[in-house]
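Researcher: Here's the sequence for the chain we discussed earlier.
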Amino acid sequence: MKKKLVFFLLLASTNLFSQEINFGAGIGSGLGDNFKVLTYNLNFEYKPERLDISLNFDPVIYSGNNRSILTTPVYIKAIVGNKLKVCPSIGGFVRFIDGDNNYGWLVGLGLELPLGHFQPYIKAEYDMDYWKSEHPLHSGGVAYENQKSPSAWLSLGLKYRILK
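Model: Thanks. This is the structure I predict for it:
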């Protein structure tokens, strides 16, 4: 009962201040070296009234190489067009890998096709991961080295507009 009440209050409060809220899901794959890694993502998009910018939260699970990785990106997306929406995006993420947390930034470009309450989409994304790697020293101590690595991803999905 408490979950329903919280959901109802969240829905009612966002209805007062937003033009559009979308929920959705998608699947995808990495590009290049990550081609065999599959992605499964959920979408939450909040678009304030009279703005062509939305705030997005898309938790993603990367599955491949005998492990799964959870990533929690938050990004801002510009929305250009009405019948076919072109959507550049920029943001950041935290990636949870084997007890360690990578962090980084992302840029992306998406295409969305509004069909009533449904919006199929395709999205390409470039991520830059940052982390610290541990290296043993000859003296018996440990040294940490900053690392970074780029990756590119492509996903397809479907969003459903619950408020407008």
